[in-house]
Amino acid sequence: MEKHGQVASLCLLLVFDAVELLNETVKVFLMQLLNFAEVVAIRRRSLEKLFQILDMYDALSGVFPNLETMVMDEFVCTEVKRVLVGLGRATKGTFMEFENAVKRDL
After folding, report:
1. What pLDDT digit, counting tens, does each position of 59-72 carry?
2. How far is CA 105 from CA 32, 41, 46, 91, in A?
3. For residues 53 and 36, is the Cβ–Cβ distance under 8 A?
4. 34 and 79 in contact (C-beta within 8 Å)?
5. What is the share, in percent, of the chain residues with pLDDT greater than 90?
6. Residue 12: pLDDT band by 50, 70, 90 thresholds?
7. Rounded to whole angstroms, how far apart are CA atoms 83 and 59?
8. pLDDT of residue 105
9. Burial of 99 (0-12, 13-18, 19+ CB in 10 A)
């Protein structure tokens, strides 16, 4: 009976290791995606790029609730929130620049 307990313990360790490995793998790809979103948020603002910013914000905010439950790393969730704030600011800034351009042309 003790042998079965050892096998079960070993299986649980393997499962936890696999989950941790999967989490770290997802984290690497997610951080690359977040880096891309950050670049979208900080690059030169123009009305033509507004839809890219909005699409990125929409996609990221749409998956965030699921992501929070899947990813065990609080750092990743904090980074997602930070990038979403950056995309929101980029959207506001783009609208403000557009408004200023319209006022100049009047």
Report:
1. 999 988 888 887 76
2. 40, 26, 16, 21
3. no
4. yes
5. 13
6. low
7. 12
8. 82
9. exposed
